Recover the amino acids of this structure.
């Protein structure tokens, strides 16, 4: 969805804080005071962590500034972490790849044809194989090879690109390299990875062959935020598809890639629509 940042009056607000009486009343009071209209509102109180989470879509004829001013006071009162943004604003995004193109192709197709709200400023690959895909969709492709000796320089180039292009989201679309602790810290909550199974099963090389050898009946995929702990970041989305004894390893690869596409695209959409809030090592996802 294209958004005119000058004329748009629709906002999305997210907020989290210790659960206590009066939060919803205070937030909606700010919206009412500036003449805003609530389009959608979702809340969740986590009994395990004692935290409260809220996402609100608002039509604000008065614009963003008065809402932001009122929410600043609410946040101080309740000890809240919060964010306000234009509803539907595409996030400036880098997609990182290696040699498998199914997730990259899917994301670029959804961005062009299905309104996935990302502004892809570059595709970064540690191999040049997928440059033609990026070229087809009119997106710059940057080949940054990664070896043991060049890893630090490669990550420096990545972070320089993130800073110079004001990148808000990095998507690892089957990028077969591990990001360093430094990158994970700097991009905390802004890097999404797709994993080729339900974590933590079948880690390592040839996951579908491992699953085939074990005779599994379900295969799946997991999209999660990247942290310094490998494949242990907060999970955003998961899905499965059924397989049988008659499915070969290539059959399972094809089925698995289809699940990976769906799961990654859904996770990216929920993230850019401000539907995912951090709850410790978990996430709260306000899906539609």
């Amino acid at each position: 969805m294209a958004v005119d940042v000058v004329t748009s009056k629709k906002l999305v607000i997210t907020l989290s804080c210790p659960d206590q009486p009066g939060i919803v009343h205070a937030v909606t009071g700010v919206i009412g005071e500036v003449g805003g209209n609530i389009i959608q509102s979702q809340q969740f109180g986590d009994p395990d962590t004692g935290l409260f989470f809220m996402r609100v879509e608002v039509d604000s004829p008065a614009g963003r500034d008065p809402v932001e001013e009122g929410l600043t006071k609410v946040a101080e009162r309740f000890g809240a972490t919060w964010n306000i943004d234009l509803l539907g604003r595409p996030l400036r995004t880098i997609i990182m790849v290696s040699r498998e193109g199914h997730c990259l192709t899917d994301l670029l197709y959804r961005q062009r044809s299905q309104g996935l709200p990302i502004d892809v400023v570059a595709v970064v690959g540690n191999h040049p194989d997928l440059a033609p895909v990026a070229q087809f969709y009119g997106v710059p492709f940057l080949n940054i090879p990664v070896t043991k000796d060049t890893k630090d320089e490669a990550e420096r180039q990545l972070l320089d690109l993130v800073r110079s292009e004001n990148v808000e989201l990095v998507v690892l679309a089957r990028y077969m390299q591990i990001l360093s602790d430094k990158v994970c810290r700097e991009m905390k909550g802004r890097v999404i990875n797709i994993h080729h199974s339900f974590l933590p099963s079948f880690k390592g090389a040839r996951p579908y062959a491992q699953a085939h050898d074990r005779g599994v009946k379900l295969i799946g995929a997991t999209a999660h935020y990247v942290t310094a702990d490998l494949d242990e970041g907060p999970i955003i989305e998961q899905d499965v598809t059924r397989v049988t004894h008659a499915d070969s390893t290539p059959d399972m690869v094809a089925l698995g890639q289809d699940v990976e596409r769906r799961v990654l695209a859904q996770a990216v959409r929920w993230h850019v629509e401000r539907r995912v809030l951090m709850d410790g090592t978990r996430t709260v996802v306000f899906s539609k």
In short: The radius of gyration is 20 Å. Residues 91-272 form a domain with the Rossmann fold fold (CATH 3.40.50.170). The CA atoms of residues 93 and 120 lie 5 Å apart. The mean pLDDT is 92.
